[in-house]
Design a protein that fits this description.
single chain, about 260 residues, alpha/beta, Alpha/beta knot, Trp Operon Repressor, Chain A, 2 domains, five-stranded parallel β-sheet, three-stranded mixed β-sheet, binds 6-chloroguanine
Length: about 260
């Protein structure tokens, strides 16, 4: 997958993208992340990328021209140098990172991981000229209900979550299927050696060697944990009829406590 990131602060990405799994994925050529400084597409000698908001108000707004032109340059390059057809280039996701976007989730990460190429636009300052959202971006993503100083950290979150889903990025043995959220449930508790630490023992079933029992225990733990910590997730989780019954019983028990 190729990911083009448009930003005023490419240096912010240096650390996260040159360590650990993202670094390995890059070396293995499973992902290629290319940065474009929006400032390089400014028009004047002062390399202006922002301006005052029409109608007044605090803060500066990112101008549309450098962003449109940067995206157009990336698309042309994809067609000319990466063998992408004009048609595919016209359909690839152009994602604006903004607190006004749809809330990022594991489901969206999975969706995005299916594309050969993505363009991410990092907003900054008080906002981005609305014409970018109306006439350039095909999607707008927020990573949560809080405000960051810019879209860069959000872009890193999206790239990380998408990259680890690409085939071959995680070790061949581990699959992202058991991750918290991929089934709509939180992950079960995990333990490693020692079997007893400061008097706290690993649950007996995990050292039993009985794989069937272990699978049942883990599924139950996932459901209980989701019930206690994130009951909001249960409505959309994939549960079988017995599991739905379990949730009903748990809900009833909660109500009786009150
Ligand atoms: Cl994508 N950008 C900014 N500036 N703040 C955010 C965000 C994005 N997602 C959550 N907060």
């Amino acid at each position: 997958m190729r990911i083009d990131i448009l930003t005023l602060f490419p240096e912010m990405f240096e650390g996260p993208f040159s360590t650990s799994i993202l670094k390995r994925a890059t070396i293995k050529k499973l992902v290629r992340v290319i940065f474009h400084n929006i400032r390089d597409y400014s028009h004047d000698k002062h390399q202006t990328t922002d301006d005052y908001p029409y109608g007044g108000g605090a803060g500066m707004i990112l101008k549309p021209e450098p962003i449109f032109e940067a995206v157009e340059a990336v698309k042309s390059e994809l067609v000319a140098r990466d063998g992408v057809s004009e048609e595919d280039a016209s359909r690839l996701p152009i994602i604006l990172l903004t607190p006004q976007g749809r809330l990022f989730s594991q489901q969206i990460a999975l969706e995005l991981s299916k594309y050969k190429s993505l363009i991410l636009i990092c907003g900054h300052y008080e906002g981005v000229d609305e014409r970018v959202s109306e006439h350039l971006a095909s999607d707008e993503i927020s990573i949560g209900d809080y405000v960051l100083t810019g879209g860069e950290l959000a872009a890193m979150v999206v790239v990380d979550a998408v990259t680890r889903l690409l085939p071959g990025v995680l070790g061949s043995k581990v699959s992202p299927q058991d991750d918290s959220h991929s089934s709509g449930l939180l992950e079960y508790p995990q333990y490693t050696r020692p079997a007893a630490y400061r008097g706290w023992s690993v649950p007996e079933v995990l050292v039993s060697g009985n794989h069937e029992k272990i699978a049942i225990w883990r599924r139950e733990q996932s459901i209980l944990r989701t019930f206690k910590r994130r009951p909001d997730l249960l409505d959309k989780a994939e549960l079988n009829p017995e599991e739905k019954e379990l949730i009903k019983r748990l809900n009833k028990k909660e109500r009786l406590k009150e």
